[in-house]
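Case study B.
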Amino acid sequence: MTLLDVQRLSKRFGAVSAVDNVSFDVARTEMLAIIGPNGAGKSTCFNMIGGQIEPDMGTVLFDGTDITRDTPQKLFRSGIGRTFQIAAVFQSMNVREVLQTALLSRDGRTASFLFPARRYKGEEADELAASVGLQDFLNTECRALSYGDLKRVELALALANRPRLLLMDEPTAGMAPDGRQQMMRLVRSLADKSGISVLFTEHDMDVVFNHADRILVLNKGQVLALDTPDEIRADPAVQAVYLGEEA
Amino acid sequence: MLTGQILTGLAGASVLFFIAAGLSLIFGVTKIVNFAHGSFYMLGAYIAYTLTEAFGASGLGFWPSILLSALAVGMIGALAEITVLKPVYKAPPLFQLLVTFGLVLIIEDLTLLVWGPEDRLGQRAPGLSGAVELLGTQIPSYDFFLIAAGPVVLGLVWLLLNKTRWGILVRAATEDREMAAALGIDQRILFTGVFFLGSALAGLGGALQLPKGGADLMMDLTVIAPAFVVVVVGGMGSLTGAYVAAVVIGLANTFGVVLLPQATLVLMFLVMAVVLLLRPHGLFGQPERAERGHTPGAGYPAAGAMEKAIWSVVLIGALLLPLAQDDFILVLATDIAVAALFATSLHFLLGPAGLVSFGHAAYFAIGAYAAALISQQIDGPGMEIALASAPVLAGAAALLFGWFCVRLSGIYFAMLTLAVAQIVWSLCVQWTDLTGGDDGLLGLWPSDWADSRMVYYYLTLALSLAAILLLRRAVHAPFGFALRAGRDAKARAEAIGIDVMHQQWLAFALAGAAAGLAGALFVFSKGSIFPDEAAIPRSVDALVMVLLGGVGHLAGPVLGSAAFTLLHDQLSRFDQWRLLLGIVIILVSTLAPAGLSGLPAMIRAFAMRRRI
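Model:
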């Protein structure tokens, strides 16, 4: 069953064709990785799906509904969670407050003056924090968190609306190798438990080949291959443009 | 007739270009929005006045005098950069802005000391004092000279920036300051040099317009708003943009005089609003880089027991104040209550919303004028109805203007708020049928029951306190949390479903409504209202209050407004109070950027260091 269906997505910046006619799909509970050399169009592709960049052409269907030009706000409400390449959470808040803010937004309460935000659904926020292993940091200011823990807060934020799809732009960038595998195991277990599909970009090939169900290889804005890790590893075209370059 | 208007507009455009080019250069390299740039323009005119009076009878003395004036202003600009601005290069933009406003006050008072209060009329330029007939209209020859001077100076500065080593370094620093530093470019000398050039251009503008417009003490702030508009419309840091925008704005200005004599500035600002909505970075500008080294915004923990105790004591003190039976103290305390609300409303934007508004006085003035006009129309409960409607009307105005402003960010947002405030100010001055113009509106006293100083003091205290508590509640409420989320990480906040722009828009309206209430309370405490309440210095007063109290704490604006009102009261007893206030502003911005509410933390940190 297809959850996300991307059809002929394209984007030009001036004379450069950043993403050219890219089509792929993500099945339910699948983890799909997008890889490719620098400048392959990973981030552009990702930001078009996430609503940060408007595509020139193409459509994105989420569970059969056209979401191509939806704002990030709307995507969140439709059940798509998003994390960013450089973790950015609300530096002036502690972990619980950050998650309470997400719950307030989810429940459509952000215009309210009626009650102190710190009293809103503290328990649910704490559960959310515990689900990503942050139960010991509830009262820690985000500016004092390690980068890896910040990435966990982001993940918890993305989970606040019980999404069916997670978009993760470089979920392990900036983390130590141990932390990376741990992070992806966490994502995997959350995905399996709640039936979430995950679309992620990643530079770390260990992470990609250990955790992705399928891999989409982009090169110069076009789809080079889309297959299981084993097939991708054996694909001579991929080896030529991508793995060859890495070695 | 029309030809004449257009040519006058183009001549004015050249002068505007000289000023805007300097402003844009300085901003491009140092990222400082220099309020004092208008003061350099004014100095150019005054220095040129002195020199041309002495030597300007012949062309041989006149033109060197003009150039010498520009050079002298360049030196003054460089000196100001070395002494006052160097220490704040790493400070947040708001502090830099206030420091440059401190310079405005200092230069204004020094100019008054040297040249006296009279307006000065400049000599005609030798050889260009006549007029030329064109299509049946007499056009001053000097206008043609000015029209030609614009492109010539544009060309010369372009050559300087593109064909000399120094110019290439300047452009490198404009493109990427950190990269330029990494390549070993000595920034200290470069920045001083750019300040010299930029100030000299402003001085040249002042000197060249002397034969047309003379020199007076109002020139500095009169020119700064159009100059900002030109820089913003052209695109921050773009020289060509500044020229094109100067021509567009110069013409808009001229047609404004012809088409809308009641509101000459409106057309100019409309042009700006339209350009910015279509091209948020100006005609030739680049998108602002994400601020690097951005200081994290403040969080606002709920008040602890200690804080609550302190505020209870303050409140009891305020309630007991009339026991002193001193009218002067009551007047001062009423002023403080009004200022505290005004400053708190601005702090709501600066702090939790992260929106630096340069034009908050607009909403104070709209509230004030609305209250004044309403109370004049209604017999009986005029004051009560005025106090109730002023915040609604000011809030509605903020809703309207805010819709445009929140579409922009950073420096462009600040500039648009300033522009809006200048529109409001110009309406207050020019729409004399409604506002009484410079004569203001008089005889606006409270209803009989509130007519004693004591009762009006309690009324002001109660309403200010209620509004301040409401704003405080908003900060701690879901509304404030979502607002702060948008300030801390915009894309992230949007990805959890928060409509950041919408949130900021509502915050803008709320702050406007609160400022409007402050304005209305102000009117009935003074009995009168003048256009000054919408002018730039009033907006800056509010910024100074917030800064003085500290942006990082909800108590900051209250503390700051009390300190500022008392300080202002003391300083205004001196003749040179502007000079003193300017020095105080510069010292506070430089030495205690966390403000009064940051002092306990500063002292703790100092004590810790001593112990170690």
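DSSP finds nine helices and ten strands in chain A. The remaining cases will be described in the next quarterly update.
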